[in-house]
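Researcher: Go.
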Amino acid sequence: MRRGLPSDGGGKSAQTGRRSGGARRRGGNARLAGAQASCGRDGRGVSPAGRRGRSMTERRRPMVIGLTGGVGAGKSTVARALAKLGAVVYDADREVSHALADPQVKREIVARWGQEVLTEEGAVDRRALASVVFRNEADRKALEGIVHPRLGRARREAMERAVSEGAPAVVYDAPLLMEAGLDRECDAVIFVDAPEEARRTRVAQERGWSEEELGRREAAQLPVEEKRARARFVVHNKGDLAQLEAETRRVFDAILEQAKRPTA
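Model: Structure:
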């Protein structure tokens, strides 16, 4: 269940992403064309897995596909569909949960925000913490500084696993993909499109959010229209699960096929 913490994996807040969004139109043009020739993203041009074994020219780097869309659009369902098609999924929300369970992370969080962000059992209470960090950008950035280094390691591990398994792609399922600048790491970005009424119903049923809470969470993100404009591919989530999986397969096949085309 999504709880709304900044589980994006990058180092920028939603406000920062909004200011620079117009200059960073992403979605896979030049990056998609060069996807199979470029190397992993550990900051030195090759992935750790590539350094340990064959070179990345011999062990083709999997594509990186980012998912974006409005809150409750069904991005995680699309991620699971892509996993069925052989992709390795980096689930930012899950990785945040793992990070918050780290004793050192908990100590740093308590040192800044106090015992009131803990449950009765002594674990970090994600809802309580989210209510604090959404108050202002300084708190949001402070949490990012604590959590995001661990999320970066998780993304590198996902790439290593994909290389090792020969997977065609790594999928970034991150709520704040564009706001955090993670779309810059992607060879293609998919916008998951769902009707607003369906999104409202979904978050009310699955997360217990009111319309006011949904509006508050979406206000901390880029406008849905901008996300769609910056994504190259669209998956329409307007039917049942079978239809969504078929739509996801169609888009995934199109991305992989385009990556095979020679550059001009």
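Model: The chain has one domain: 14-260.
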